[in-house]
Amino acid sequence: MARPTKKKRKKKAKLTAATADRHILYGLSVQNVEAEIDFVDATYEELRGRKAVTVREDFCGTASSACEWVKRREGNRAVAVDLCEETLAWGREHNLSKLTDEQRDSITLLKRNVLDPGPEGMGVDVVLAMNFSYWIFVKRTEIVEYFKTVRASLPEDGMFILDHYGGSDALTECEEDREMDDFTYVWDQHSYNPINGEMTCYIHFKFNDGTKMKRAFEYHWRHYTLPEIQDCLRDAGFGKVTVYWEGEDDEGEGNGEFFPCETGDADMAFITYIVAEP
Ligand SMILES: C[S@@+](CC[C@H](N)C(=O)[O-])C[C@H]1O[C@@H](n2cnc3c(N)ncnc32)[C@H](O)[C@@H]1O
Questions:
Q1: Is the CB of residue 182 less than 8 Å from the CB of residue 208?
Q2: What is the mean pLDDT of residues 83-107?
Q3: 60 Cβ partners below 8 Å, 6+ apart?
Q4: Ligand 1 pocket, 82 CB below 6 A?
Q5: Which residue's C-alpha comes closest to atom 22 of ligand 1?
Q6: What per-residue confidence (pLDDT) applies to 3?
Q7: Quick count: other Cβ atoms within 10 Å of Cβ 181?
Q8: 22-165+225-277 adopts what CATH topology?
């Protein structure tokens, strides 16, 4: 039997649906802002021959990408735009609070509609729209209007970078579990209407004690195919639209490296980056 000591070992509290914070779980299971910002930084430098300084993160949620951007280099600045006050406040309290004073002063959080980012959101080097958030615009006219707004925010050497999820899996109703360290992430493509492309998706979290956080996040959006998005970007006035396809490792799995491509594989599920230039 182990000898008892006076010093009590601090036990890590087990996650349960009652104690877990949905934004922390989202950050752990959905986002990879380091890899995303690696791509943005390298792509801008490769295409422009200089490093980007200002980034606008549209649909920023908790502004994780904006925080990652200002941490990268002294002098970097970010504008982060989201409609939801609760989510912005969470980002301020949990993400911006971890930055140095100088980094924090380099971020402008805006509670605004991305369709009207205001003067603070203009003239940036890069606009980002990640995790397919722009699918919120279910009408083609709306998404083209959003892309026009982005185009108008950019200088001639600016860049719009967005990600896209495609393949036959994206057009089905299905549920997929992924085991994380202390919980299970569940991606639920709950309903899909093939006539107008509209779908409802949820994120649920399950915990080791059997409790569940159902519908922690919900999305009502339209799935746009990759060709549709490229057409919409061109219709909005972007002169050059390039798809960056993911490379493969020895087992044929995505390796996290993305390259400009004109021909992709008809995989069941793929994630790409799209780079749109004025
Ligand atoms: C899927 S989350 C994206 C969070 C984060 N950017 C990411 O990459 O994971 C979508 C966010 O878009 C915001 N949103 C939805 N419509 C918006 C709009 N028209 N203007 C600004 N933000 C919007 C929501 O409040 C929500 O925080």
A1: yes
A2: 98
A3: 66, 80, 81, 82, 88, 91, 109
A4: yes
A5: 82
A6: 55
A7: 6
A8: Rossmann fold (3.40.50)
Is 0.70 surpassed by the pTM of this model?
yes
Select from 166, 192, 142 the least CA-distant residue to 268.
166
- For residue range 132-161, list pLDDT tens digits in order: 999 999 999 999 999 999 999 999 999 999
Which ligand 1 atom is at minimum distance from the Cα of 146?
Answer: 19
Q: What residue spans in the chain does CATH classification 3.40.50.150 cover?
A: 22-165+225-277
Tell me the backbone φ, ψ of residue 182, rounded to 5 degrees.
-115, 5
* Residue owning the nearest CA to atom 6 of ligand 1: 60
Give the residue ranges of DSSP H helices in the chain.
Answer: 22-29, 33-48, 64-72, 85-94, 101-105, 140-153, 226-235
Ligand 1 neighbour 28 (Cβ under 6 A): no
Residue 1 is predicted with a pLDDT of 47
Query: From the CB of 272, is ligand 1 less than 6 Å away?
Result: no
Rounded Cα distance, 167 and 157, in Å: 31
**The pair of three-digit structure tokens given for residue 155, joined into one six-digit string:** 């200088």
* pLDDT tens-digit readout, 232-251: 999 999 999 999 999 999 99
